[in-house]
Specification:
The complex is a heterodimer of chains A (about 110) and B (about 120). Chain A has about 110 residues and is mostly beta strands. Chain A is built from no helices and 11 strands. By secondary structure, chain B is an all-beta fold. Classes of the chains: A mainly beta (about 110), B mainly beta (about 120). At the A-B interface, β4, β5, β9 and β10 of A face β9 and β10 of B.
Chain lengths: ~110, ~120
Amino acid sequence: SQQGEEDPQALSIQEGENATMNCSYKTSINNLQWYRQNSGRGLVHLILIRSNEREKHSGRLRVTLDTSKKSSSLLITASRAADTASYFCATDADAGNMLTFGGGTRLMVKP
Amino acid sequence: ETGVTQTPRHLVMGMTNKKSLKCEQHLGHNAMYWYKQSAKKPLELMFVYNFKEQTENNSVPSRFSPECPNSSHLFLHLHTLQPEDSALYLCASSQAQGARLGYGYTFGSGTRLTVV
């Protein structure tokens, strides 16, 4: 099944800096979602962007979608230590109409 | 709490044991999912239930047996597991099945399973 692929696999920044994570996928999609997972916990839905949207904001989160490049980015501005987590993109590109997840980006924000 | 509750949080079982994982949601969602998360691997979809009916079995070995008695409850029955089955098992729900509809998934906190 089709998966998004996040880049980088791991990212370490200082508190207050911005963090950017990227997601690439291979076939056309109707929507793309971003999730956060704190260590050993379940995933939390952050934001959904539809294929006809180019940018969405939610608090300190900014998501962009470039369907021509089949890629999305998640920007976290003014990062905090509490943002330390793994971030996953998920797409509906699977032929079975299932949500499929990428391998995630592990973000560490140092205080 | 996300609205999806999984029990137990941790489980250690021998290869000859039989145990069950439980998932419960009271969000009014109609679709429920089991995922397996192993170290350094993407999330693996195992089973999907929509309105209590199983709609997806992602080639999961028969030692994993799901049960969905109603739209609010989902079980994963385990028997004669192998050490490589050790993982975090996540339950999720969504308003409806069908990723193209664009509904977000609500996940439970997971059950950390260790097979010894």
